[in-house]
C-alpha cells in the first residue's frame, strides 16, 4: 500500500508525535477494556527501541472544546505503564507551555501522554493554528489511530500536512487486514451484517452487494427484510416504513449476483429479559406479543455452510440481542464456527464495529479470527466504501 511507514526511518533523538486512539471504555474512572491500549504498544515499543521521544496524542469522549475533568486521559496512564512495562509521563495540556515543558524534559526513549485533544475546540475544527501548536512539539508525526481516521481533525488530518507523516504499526495492520477482506480478497467472499437499523446501514448494504458473493443479514434489521417479504413480525423491532427500501436492496442484490441470506427460522420471546423462555419458530409463526430476538438454528447452520463455501468473511454486527442471553446463541455459534474455519486455515475472517467486537469477546473467539478491528465508526465508513480523511492524509504524495 502506498503509505510511508517507519521502516528504515532513523528516529533516534527525534520527538515523535503519535496519534493513538485511547478513547477506551471507562467506568468509575477506570479503564474497563484495554484493547486500544494494547493496540498502541507495537508502535510505542518500536519508537522506544529506536531511541525516539514518544509523545502520545489522543482524544477521549466528546468534551466539545471544554476542559471536562471526567474526560481526562489521566486514568489511562497506569494501565498503559503496566502493559508497556515502562513509565509514561503525563501533561495536563496537549499544547502551550505545559506541553512544551513536559516535552523539553524528555530523554530519548521516554514516553509522554498529553491531555485530551478535544479539550481544545481547534482539534475537531481542524483549525490550522491549533495544528501548528501541536506540531511545534514534534519532529515527526505517526498516525496509529485507524479508529479515528474517519474524522478530519487537527491530530488526524491537519498534522499530516505539517510534519513528515507515517502510518504506525496498528494503522498498518488495520489497512492490511481491511484490504485482504474487501480490497483484494480471496473469493468467494461472505459478509455478515447485523445490528438493528436498516436506515443507518443502507450505504453499507449497497457497497457490500457490489463487492461480495454472499451477504447474510441478521439482527433487528433482518426483521425489516422479513416484513418486506410479507412475513408476520408481530411485536418485533421493525422499520415498516422501510419495506420498499428493503425490497430495493433485495432487487439490487439479485441484479448484481450477490446472494442474500435472510433468516429461515427465528428465536422469539415476549421480552428480551435475561434468561427469558426463548422459543424457536418457523418464519411468521409468532404470537402477537412476541418478538424476534435471535436467528434460529437452521439459519445459523445455513450461515455456517456459507462460511464453509467461502474463502473470506467480513463481519459487522450481531445476529440477535447478544447482550441478553439466551439471545446470544446465534451470534456465539456463528462466531465459534468462523473461528474454527480460521484455525483450520480455510477462512480469512475480519470483523469490526463496536458491538461486533463485544460479541466476539463474549464468545471468547476474538483472538481466533484473522483480524478484529479496533474501530467502530471508521470500520463502518470504510465498509461503506468511503474515503477516510486520516488515511488519505497519509498517502504518499
Ligand atoms: C471511536 O471510539 O469510534 C473513535 O475513537 C471515534 O470517536 P468519536 O466518534 O467520538 O469521534
Ligand atoms: Mg464512538
The helix tally amounts to 14
Class based on secondary structure composition and strand pairing: alpha/beta
What ligand molecules are bound, each kind once? 3-phosphoglyceric acid, magnesium ion
Distance between the termini: 13 Å
- Count of β-strands: 17
Helical fraction equals 25-40%
Task: For the largest sheet, list the strands in their spatial order.
Answer: 5-6-4-1-7-8
Beta-strand fraction estimate: 15-25%
Notes on the structure:
Helices cover 35% and strands 16% of the residues. A six-stranded parallel β-sheet has the order 5-6-4-1-7-8, with helices on both faces. Strands 11-10-9-15-16-17 form a six-stranded parallel β-sheet, with helices on both faces. With 397 residues, the protein is α/β, with parallel strands linked by helices. The chain is built from 14 helices and 17 strands. The model has no long low-confidence stretch (mean pLDDT 95). The site of magnesium ion has 2 residues, from loops. 3-phosphoglyceric acid is lined by residues 21, 23, 62, 147-148, 151, 376-377.
